[in-house]
Amino acid sequence: MAHPHHEHAGRHEISSLNRAFIIGITLNALFVLFEFIAGFATRSVGLMSDAGHNLSDVVSLILAMLAFRLSEINANSKYTYGYKKSTILISLLNAILLLIAVGVIAAESIGKIISPQPVEGGVIAWVAATGVLINAFTAWLFMKNREKDLNVKGAYLHMAADALVSAGVMVSGIVIAYTGWLIPDPVIGLTVAAVIVHATWQLLRDSVRLSLDGVPAGISIDDIEAAMRAVDGIRDIHHTHIWALSTTETALTAHIVVDDAGRMETVKRSLKLILRKKAITHATLEFETDGAECTDTCNGADRKSGR
User: Would you list the DSSP string of the chain?
Assistant: First the structure.
């Protein structure tokens, strides 16, 4: 009776994330419009350029929601795994967009250090304060599920980074308004850029690994094989491959050598149960009897047996 409960929980989680994306996209799109109008009215190049940066975050959220929707499309004769892999490609694109945003922030900050421009600190502080609230709230929408999916993590990082940027801009606006000193703006910008790079690096690394069909983070092929070898009736395991079908689903294929062909079904059930507990949702197992010749060509993945 546990299956209907998990199915209901899954549907609830999907609905919750879908709602988070819609709310986040709407709020941030409205803020981009507000920030651009404020920048145009006060002739603040900084605010208008930041509106452009925030527009890239709206695009990032739209891409993440697109990946989320594509992952729900059923498989067909041409795409036998559906469009699940698109979630990995989009997470990689989002990581790249974050780094591009960092480059823009750094370039603007350096430009302001070299050639300071007078700005209206009070207006900047109020607009940035609004940005802090919107970005922090949007980040909070994705915080609970950020470790379950790379695209959700990317959306969370985008919004958390923007909240940091807006907080930095708000502080610099207050300082400028009360002292007329312009240097805090670019200094805070460079500091925030460094923080974003540190937070983005793991997302980029994980996205590249999954794009190359590498073993997902948090899964050890040695631990998986050790757990499988512990099943009674298994003599050896080789040709083991583990890769990500999507940012939330992991697949495995392996050749299993058993000492008794009559126990294959029992062994298979035990293995599938172990693999599900190890977060591997899709397993394809090929069974061989001890002493039988393996007809598959071996490659570098067969690390131990060399067969």
Answer: -HHHHHHHHHHHHHHHHHHHHHHHHHHHHHHHHHHHHHHHHHT-HHHHHHHHHHHHHHHHHHHHHHHHHHTTSPP-SS-TTTTTTHHHHHHHHHHHHHHHHHHHHHHHHHHHHHS-----HHHHHHHHHHHHHHHHHHHHHHHTTTTT-HHHHHHHHHHHHHHHHHHHHHHHHHHHHHH---THHHHHHHHHHHHHHHHHHHHHHHHHHHHTTPPPTT--HHHHHHHHHTSTTEEEEEEEEEEESSSS-EEEEEEEEES-GGGHHHHHHHHHHHHHHTT--EEEEEEEETTPPP-SPP-TT-TTT--
